Amino acid sequence: MKVNHSFLATINPSCKLFSHVLVMLLLMVITDVKVTFLIWFLAVLIGLFLGGWTISYLLKRLCPFFGIFILIFWMMAAFGKGQETIWQWAWFHVTQESINHGLTIAFRMLAFVTYGLLFTSTTDLTVFIMSLIHQCKLSPKWAYGLLAGIRLIPLFQSELNQLKMAHKVRGYKEKNGWKMFLSYAVPMFTQGIRKSERIAIAMEARGLSRAKNRTYYRTTKVALKDGGYLVSILAIVIVMIIIFR
Amino acid sequence: MDMFLGCNDLSVRYYNRSEHILKNITLSINKGEKVLILGPSGGGKSTLISTLAGIIPEYIEAEVTGQVFLRDNVGIMFQDPDSQFCMLHVDEEIAFSLENRSVPQTEMDNIISDLMNQVGLKVDKKTPIDTLSGGMKQRLALACLLALEPEVLFFDEPTAQLDPAGRKEILEILHRLSQKTNQTMIFVEHMLDGCIEWMDRIIMLNEDGNVIGDGEPEDIIHHFTNEMKEAGIWRPKLYPSKWIEVIENPSHPLSIKLSKQFKSKCQTAMKDYKIENPVISTENVTIGYGRKSIVKEINLTIDKGEWISIVGENGSGKSTLLKSLIRLEPIKKGNIFIHGKELTNWSDRELYEQVGFVFQNPEHQFIADTVFEEIAFGGSQRNWPEELIYAKTKRLIQEFGLEDHENKHPFTLSFGQKRRLSVATMLLFDQALLLLDEPTFGQDEKTTYKLMKQLKERQKQGTTIIMVTHDMDLVDQYSDRVLLLNKGKMAYQGTPFGLFSNRDILQKTKIIPPLHYQLMHERREEILV
């Protein structure tokens, strides 16, 4: 999660997350193709005009999901039930209803992905965690622990690469999937436990749990525009639902 | 008793062990004192400072008896640079210390800038922590501790995981800091050069967790030479002599010793080498991913039975070059030949029967459940007859001194034993070529020289050795040739003598030669003056 310099990046992360989750919840109960498509399209528009996306960024990110889009659509459309048969061949049975179904589900998936991307591409991880502390009242102990854990992910990645190389040199080939998994998992787990224990001790040694009136280097607040974002995005979606129902 | 910091009849036992790790320790440390705690590994040095810092039994559970006199505000620095941070950027990390102390937000920015200056961390405040080098990370760790405004600073092997350049930097900063603030500092270290010169006191522990020596550094060094050797402590090369005395007084014992060393090196340097039977050669090799090249245009030929060291600063591409020799890194341009056959034409199986690779972290290589199986692994994969596997494995176990640990799980061995096992696993096929990535990194003196001896033995039998290292004494003592990489390019290729006597290259690539060469450079300069 890296931040860019768009308008959306200045919105309070908790507020942004809450708005997007609400839209996603609405998406789940909508069964209309047009509305689902429009809600997805709204996310694309927000991304392009408020989120600092370029067309090429958008295409690059969504490209893999278009593949899944077609797959979901075809699965739903060709094997679905329905009365109005459009086309039938061998075991494929495409009906008006199944096409509708397929498109709705496929656009719903795409919209979920796009709203998620809208959040991650415009939110700084640290600010997000800080906002969880300030707006969602997450305890600092958990929040800082979470951050420390996230730091470990790239370390694990390089560890895994090293392990793969070492196994290659030793000519280690295991057909038994479980044993194969263990041969990677055991050293990674031991290393992970050791590292996280050390980090925890280092954090405690620096007084994490001794702090009484903790101050904060970075604070996040909810401003008018954050509420504005929430209200307007919800309003647009609801209006769309009402008009196109 | 009114004590600044210390303990009275302190004993500590971890709950999972029956033996006490520290026994009946009584210590008093004065304000402003710089104390160094020495002892064998597993002898309770870290336990002692963790107890004095109040981490045991507060955060690490253990049974503690006796009295401990703690200070309220302490800072402790650990050895692993990667596992003491919890934030993503430099400024946030320092702020974490300030937040815990409830420093008002408005003051934080100034304090952070001040601290960064104080520890010489000259980077942008927003720099991600993962992009810092090991030495920079330890500077950051120090800044985070100073942010706590501690009365006492504890250091648990703060430089054990740094290269010599990073180590020197950190110790110099600490020295300067200690002079400026007269901070109380307590160290655990196993390498004495760079810190013993400014310590006030040394406390020596033995294997059973008793204090056996406590006094002025010079006396302790003098009295406990054997204990230090036994404990694998890297004893100082110079201390208690002073460099200036050694240079000015040719009859100084150390001066005589160094001159002798230098002369004997001179003689060996006169031998020319001829390549008769190349094991590995490269033609214009460039290594990297995508558009990025990490190592450029490498041409080298290595003869059978040679010992080659690859040296260079961190990030100069040493490990990458070593890994590319057995296809662990992609080659963008050029060719590598092993026994005259192009690298791409070798099958994995054949290649790794010819070439062994010892990784920096020995644990990565272990796949079996016992030491015996670990070494025998390749043989059993190739369906060798039982007797052959048994004979070869036994021989290796003996050669690397692992007889008593044959049935142990590799992960339960000590650090030095793990290292030796990882080398032994790479020799089952009597590999003609052995590549080692910093094999002595973090090892103590005893295990280092034990390993070097075993490798030398192998070399005599005809094994070619290529080793990446930071230790210039090892380079000088053991290698026939040295390759110096500087920013991904070959800066020198030849004898160690040639490298260490060439002042221009040394300065350009920031390499510090062994003492006897330094003495020679000083002498030469004097003649010129």
UniProtKB/TrEMBL annotation, chain A:
Record's bilayer topology term: Multi-pass membrane protein
InterPro entries per UniProt: ABC/ECF_trnsptr_transmembrane, ECF_transporter_component
Compartment(s) of residence: Membrane
Predominant location: membrane
Membrane-spanning ranges: 7-31, 37-55, 62-79, 227-244
Domain of life: Bacteria
Keywords for the protein's UniProt record, in alphabetical order: Cell membrane, Membrane, Transmembrane, Transmembrane helix
A Pfam family matched in the record: CbiQ
CDD domains from the UniProt entry: EcfT
Protein known as: Energy-coupling factor transporter transmembrane protein EcfT
Automatic annotation (TrEMBL), chain B:
PROSITE patterns referenced in this protein's UniProt entry, alphabetically: ABC_TRANSPORTER_1, ABC_TRANSPORTER_2
Keyword Glycosyltransferase: no
Subcellular location as annotated: Cell membrane
Keyword Metal-binding part of the UniProt annotation: no
Pfam families, per database record: ABC_tran
Membrane-related topology note: Peripheral membrane protein
Family stated for the protein in its record: Belongs to the ABC transporter superfamily.
Descriptive protein name: ATP-binding cassette domain-containing protein
Species: Pallidibacillus pasinlerensis
